[in-house]
Amino acid sequence: MSPMTRTGLYIHVPFCSSKCNYCDFNSYAGKLHLAEKYFSAVQKEIQLYYNTMKYNLIDSIYIGGGTPSCIKHKYICEILDMCRINFNIAEDCEISIESNPGTLDIEKLTAYRSSGINRISIGLQAYRRSLLKYLGRRHSAEDFISSVELAKKAGFCNINADIIFGIPGQTFEDWTETLRVLVELGVKHISAYSLKIEEGTKFGDMLENGELIPVEDELDREMYHYAVNYFKKNGFKQYEISNFSKEGYICRHNLIYWKCADYLGLGAGAHSLLDGERFSNKCSIESYTGDLERGVKPVEERYRLEYSDRMSEYMFLGLRLNQGVNNTEFKELFKKDMFFLYKESFEELQKNKLIEIQGQNVRLTGLGLDLANQVFVKFV
């Protein structure tokens, strides 16, 4: 009997207490009254994938959003129970949940732990109250600190914090204060993102109307470089452009995406990659639940990846990782030599000091990390 395919599982929770000014994720404020119907639909969707997933071993589950912690914990626990009934869940499965400060209490956190959740991500984004208000966040830094302490009390050791730099009005000192607080709190994983202003968000509208001036690239890069060095000095390993972890706390689910491994996405707007095919669900909560009430999978878009697409994704996603991409692995996957296939691109990027080649490995240089998009476009 052939071994099961190790696969990730993503579960999307599209509910939020309020929409942040920078957020372009599929999330909705003011729709919590739909939660019961929504999670009933997710349970139906899980059952519809029973046969598809019978030869897959789930070794990572990620409950994201939206704000999964803004809904009753019973919905989360029931979904995980349904996953265990219908899917093969690895004994050492990493099970993560996203949360926001101010939406967590000891009862909810204890229920999460009892249901098998062993990793929690708490969105700080910024420490200064004025910056939180500007971002449209509804919590304070004190709420974040309290949430971390409550999570520890409930038995969570694997705690991630999300933070943002390059926020208009954010000073370098504001940024260093945020980093210091996280290190002192003892979180094991930190995701640090440069603010991206997306169309369709409040910030996107403000930029278009001239009400928002993006941070200068020089300050953005200064903040990033400081974070890389500060985290390194404090025992964090940078394993991807934006992600840092203590030894043994690399996010397994993150690696699934960057290594182009299979994953199934459940919920409104969730994306999947299974057996060389990408597909995504309808984004609207009402459309998603309506399809499942009729016993129909709520898939909106589906396409099979060409061989060239799969190789391209392997390159530009894998180069996000500090270890880079490996030719031996590339040959095993695609029966081709990446040094021959991308010879001209590698030569140009190496000449411009954006990549370095060590044996069978290709990885970004420090300059390449700063100019990553210039590298990635070579493989699209």
UniProtKB/TrEMBL annotation:
Subcellular location: Cytoplasm
GO cellular component, one term: cytoplasm
Annotated protein name in UniProt: Heme chaperone HemW
Domain Radical SAM core: 1-237
Record family assignment: Belongs to the anaerobic coproporphyrinogen-III oxidase family. HemW subfamily.
Matches recorded under InterPro entries: Aldolase_TIM, Coproporphyrinogen-III_oxidase, Elp3/MiaA/NifB-like_rSAM, HemN_C, HemW-like, rSAM, rSAM_sf
Function: Probably acts as a heme chaperone, transferring heme to an unknown acceptor. Binds one molecule of heme per monomer, possibly covalently. Binds 1 [4Fe-4S] cluster. The cluster is coordinated with 3 cysteines and an exchangeable S-adenosyl-L-methionine.
Record-linked Pfam families: HemN_C, Radical_SAM
GO term, biological process aspect, one: porphyrin-containing compound biosynthetic process
Spans through the membrane: none
Organism of provenance: Ruminiclostridium sufflavum DSM 19573
Taxonomy, superkingdom: Bacteria
Keyword check for Heme: yes
UniProt KW keywords: 4Fe-4S, Chaperone, Cytoplasm, Heme, Iron, Iron-sulfur, Metal-binding, S-adenosyl-L-methionine
GO molecular function: 4 iron, 4 sulfur cluster binding; coproporphyrinogen oxidase activity; metal ion binding
